[in-house]
Amino acid sequence: MTNTLLVAGGRVLGPDMTVERADVVADRETGRIEAVGPDAADEYDADETLDAEGCLVMPGLVNAHTHAAMTLLRGYADDKPLGPWLREDIWPAEAALEPEDVRAGTELGVVEMIRSGTTAFADMYFDVDEVVAAVEAAGVRARVGHGVVTVAKDDEDAAADVEESLRVAREFDGAADGRVSTAFMPHSLTTVGEEFLREGVETARQEGIPVHIHANETTEEVEPIVEERGERPLSYADDVGLLDEANFLAHGVHTDDEEISLLAERGAAVVHCPASNTKLASGIAPVQKMLDAGVTVGIGTDGAASNNDLDMFDELRDAAMIGKLGADDAAAVPAAAAVEAATAGSATAIGIDAGRIETGALADLAVVEFDAPHLAPTHDYVSHLAYAVRGSDVRHTVCDGRVLMRDREILTLDEERVVAEARERAEHLVERAES
Ligand SMILES: [Zn+2]
User: Fold this and answer.
1) What is the pLDDT of residues 189-211, one digit of tens each?
2) Which residues of the chain are in CATH 3.20.20.140 domains?
3) For residues 371 and 53, is the Cβ–Cβ distance under 8 A?
4) How far, in Å, is the centroid of ligand 1 from the Cα of 34?
């Protein structure tokens, strides 16, 4: 066995959420985990070793719903509800974006994610070739897509937008040595007209392309659908073909019991975005009910403009905390469920073979240091992952068997250059948007 990476001396979080002393061996050729065990270090002559002494080795976190380039709008417009925030602030600024801005913003987002142990993400945006270039350079994994909006467009432009999303899904699937996968991404049930939605989803289904969409995010979005159609949004979504097993929906905040049953039956996953839903006062998703019904639940940060960071540890803590508030039950969304949702749940939601540390799975790992004061004592590792660990506790990040961050130094991108460029581009973007 040649070309191996050894992560030695740590404890490992298993798929069943147990923690044991073990080493992890990754095959850097296949990008998969070759062995996990207490003596693995003795059995392999590794080409590269990462020191995990005093650390917990866990699956890399999977940010299952974001718009990475929106880091450029972090802190640009806050403290407003979703509708006015989008119409008055975000969409006008996005209209002024140049492709190079998308590249710079995505790189900034990816640097932030690697720093905080996220190894894969699902991204809905535009100028997707720039997103793919950033993913390729950074060494992370992503399911990417072009977000379709047809409202306020004539039929020709609307059809072209649908076609662009399908084109992007076809063209970039398998890019970056297979680390990039794609989806058809209509923005939401209310921002894409019915005929365009049906046509696009049907084509995607025929071609085996998954679909990702925002759904049931706010009452402002749900109520008109109920009024106009006389049915719940996910009943409409089901009729359109959106609830197939390969598909995943962001938010699902205002989802009733029947819709939850429908999700469980059809197999579509829900990506819970607790920080975004809290900040925009969208509501509290019924996460424990979804888990009880057997719905696949992942976790996402949503864009940085509604969060305002991309730290998945923050996000899974919010999921555990707000899940209790929403269920009026301190036993709801326990630590292990939140950690599982941010790893295996998110990986299943976006359709990648990661999110768990076992032989054969993709070697996407985060190595978390446990010696900081806020992590002492350590009665329970999983409790700390949910309630006390911060993204800055991550020491090493590995994706596809390749080290992306070693001892808190990012190896694939020049962090200083990325941050400086993003600052400059964000400044010019806002000037253009407001002129
Ligand atoms: Zn979103």
Assistant:
1) 999 999 999 999 999 999 999 99
2) 61-350
3) no
4) 35
Centroid of ligand 1 to alpha carbon of 211 (angstroms): 14
Task: Assess if CATH 3.40.50.720 describes domain 4-59+355-410.
Answer: no
Residues 6+ apart with CB under 8 A from 342: 61, 62, 298, 299, 312, 315, 316, 319
Distance 304 CA to ligand 1 centre (A): 10
Separation of CA 53 and ligand 1 centre (Å):
37
In the block, which residue shows the tokens 């995990």? 52
Ligand 1 centroid, distance to 350 Cα (angstroms): 14
Q: What's the pLDDT at 2?
A: 66
3-state secondary structure the chain: CCCEEEEECCEEECCCCCEEECEEEEECCCCEEEEEECCHHHHCCCCEEEECCCEEEEECEEEEEECHHHHHHCCCCCCCCHHHHHHHHHHHHHHCCCHHHHHHHHHHHHHHHHHCCEEEEEEEECCHHHHHHHHHHHCCEEEEEEEECCCCCCHHHHHHHHHHHHHHHHHHCCCCCCCEEECEEECECCCCCHHHHHHHHHHHHHHCCCEEEEECCCHHHHHHHHHHHCCCHHHHHHHHCCCCCCCEEEECCCCCHHHHHHHHHHCCEEEECHHHHHHCCCCCCCHHHHHHHCCCEEECCCCHHHCCCCCHHHHHHHHHHHHHHHHCCCCCCCHHHHHHHHHHHHHHHHCCCCCCCCCCCECCEEEEECCCHHHCCCCCHHHHHHHCCCHHHEEEEEECCEEEEECCEECCCCHHHHHHHHHHHHHHHHHHHHC
Binding residues for Zn(2+), by number, are: 65, 67, 214, 302
Q: How far is the CA of 250 from the centre of ligand 1 (A)?
A: 7
Residues of the chain with CATH 2.30.40.10: 4-59+355-410
Binding residue ranges for substrate: 94, 187, 217, 302
What is the Cα–Cα distance from 55 to 265, expressed in whole angstroms? 39
CA distance 94 to 76: 12
**Please, are residues 353 and 361 in contact by the beta-carbon 8 Å criterion?**
yes
Q: What is the pLDDT of residue 180?
A: 98
User: Quick one: fold of 61-350?
Assistant: TIM Barrel (3.20.20)
pTM of the model: 0.98
Distance from Cα 214 to the centre of ligand 1, integer Å: 6
Q: Which residues of the chain have pLDDT under 50?
A: none
